[in-house]
Here is the input.
Amino acid sequence: MNNKTLSRRQFVTGVTMGAAALAINPSILFAGMRNNITTLTGNTFNLSIGEQSVNFTGTTRQATTVNNSLPAPLLRLKEGEMITLHVKNNLKESTSIHWHGLILPSEMDGVPDISNDFHGIDPGQTFTYRFKAKQSGTYWYHSHSGYQEQTGLYGSIVIDPIDKDPFEYDKDYVVMLSDWTDEDPNDVYANLKKLSDYYNRGERTHSDLMNDIREKGVSGTWNSRKMWNQMRMSQRDLSDVTGYTYTYLTNGHTPDKGWVGLFNKGEKIRLRFINGSAMTFFDVRIPGLKMTVVAADGNNVQPVNVDEFRIGVSETYDVIVEPKDDMAYTIFAQDIARSGYARGTLTPNVSMTAEVPELDKVPNLTHTDMGMDMSNMAGMDHGSMDMGGKPSAGMDHSKMNMGQKPMAGMDNSKMNMSGGKKMSTMDSMVTHADTEFGPHVDMRSASPQYRLDDPGVGLRNNGRKVLTYADLRNLHMTHNYPDPDREVQLHLMGNMMRYMWSINGVKFSKAEPLRFKMGEVVRITLVNDTMMNHPMHLHGLWSDLETGDNMYIPRKHTVIVQPGAKISYRVIVDAKGSWAYHCHLLYHMAGMFRQVIVA
Amino acid sequence: MKLLTITLASYSIALSSLSFASMEDDPVLTKVMGEVEMRSTNGDNPRVWNIDAWVGQDLNKLWIKAEGERVGSNTEQSELQLLYSKAVAPFWDLQFGVKKDFNPKPSRNWGVIAAKGLAPYLFEIDASLFIGESGQSAVRLDAEYEYMLSQKLIISPEIEINIFGKDDELTGTGKGLSTVEAGLRLRYEITREFAPYIGINWEKKYGNTADFSATEGENIEDTQLVVGVRFWF
Here is the structure.
């Protein structure tokens, strides 16, 4: 209990500091002005959404903020309480707030024209959200209107549990990672449509070619690049929007100074990482400290010690660190494309800082990321595979096998890829519908694998212990988990060059809703037929991830589907209403989106 | 005109498509991209432009291609294409419409069918079939490749081949292989949208086209240094 009193005091300090900062400078929020996030506690909140001048880069821009704060205030709630939030819209356009990861009635979920009876909050209007905090842990909230999330409308939620936390800590900090651009998000989207590699300044160049030739020889280099060249894909297509335009923020602080968290030697610090970015996957580490991951997406997991973890857009991870020395440590969160980083410092003394590591080398996507089953291809002559001119034919291995032939034999070999773990449920057959062919789709994974123990591109064999989904085990046993009644397979698709995104080749505006029956258990299998990670977020219902260990199924609200991979999770359909289900990359969302109706 | 109506109709349908939020997955956008350059020869230096512009959405666009050359105060060559561009494959658009050659005189009108896109190994291709008046026909093949020396310094070889079905003496066009043009340009992307370049351009006329030129006292083959800017917005 003592621990919690301490941690509360920490947050109270945050409130006063935030208030003081606002009193000093009400007009412009400068980077690095405030040390802690503004915190609001209790069960009734007044949130005012408005425009606010900010300056992160040397140029003043308008941001969309809550109570003049970027990030929006931390809301500290108590599990079991009825929460009331009066949200006033002072913008000239419609707005909304979605409480990301919170289990609540559809009417309170805050997605305009999707959530029941909710059509956004008009200018000048106040909407009152009212729901019970049914859960505890680290969550966040953000606008679900237009691009307001990119322009600053995101904040953290901490729900303190009724029962004591199953782990101890002395300090408690939210670390909200985000991406800021001075550009109008509409222009960012237009740039991507006109030139999809607009923000990619990490393409391979002449010097990479020379290095490759030195290492592999001319023919080796040709062969290793052949398929990519034939398919017109870039092995450096890691992130659509990068540090070319983004400034990465930690709790609203630019990396030059960064956010600072204080500790006393020997204390245990709980860091609640939230990825509130529009488009950025971060790889997070604290050189010199082991991190013990204790919760994922707000839900407690069995502690796992790591050096580094990848946090997808809208995921949260709680970690505990225990600095033994009187020295400073850098929280280093580099973006997946290695184009920049967000930075924080844990230090016993504000005057002490730690060295900031170099960005890792820009990685290349591999055949695995293209969904090629390397185990099936062992012994095959790679170079002789004729994919020239008709990539779809080459990639459509699975379609050719589609004629209702059982694929059991193949699937067994695939299963062995995911670390030798056995799924209890039958592996699903990957087939492609007619809608998945055409100018809007540039690839289909040949044989997507479960890659739960794959840390992902850029993190493989990097000498550090990197968290994978296979490491996530629910703190509580899930042996009574009901078996799925049925399976829904969805394909995440797109055409990178045309910058078009869809599910099953059908974009949201042309799609029928997915219909779930109240009370059923649905197994969703997502197949990624693109070259990038997609963080898929299902509103209103939990995504219970099949990691291979059915005794301890971890519970998430957002699930990363790696390029060329597939992943399955179970959904207990226990909440009626209309829900959003989408890729949380902001510029993919308009297309890669479905309405889910539970009746 | 019919094409234009169809295109505009499809825009208005798409514009009303999205209900949630104010996010449009497929907004109507415009893009103008071009290269304008000066070529050095004996005598007046030709100024050459090559401009593409489109307005449209992901899969359907109205596409304009303009190119030409001015020497001194004379427009030696100029043409304009107005096309409907429809995505037919992940990396390919099929384009059809009309072309007018304003210069050299007399002007000529053509119907156009073109395939524009990205071929395997990342070659940018624009292949056009032109159907002219009184049985004339022509084929133009344009291919370009980009090689990145660094993230901003890019060298791009390019080749254009023109073939005609019949002689057209008035415009100095000969049957069969008519002209081949090859260039190598080195550009520096100050921004994504603006890149000055230097390069060389080689041009040769063949067959009857060469003969017509020779009669007029023009060069049949020419190699020129070029300096220009590549831009888009």
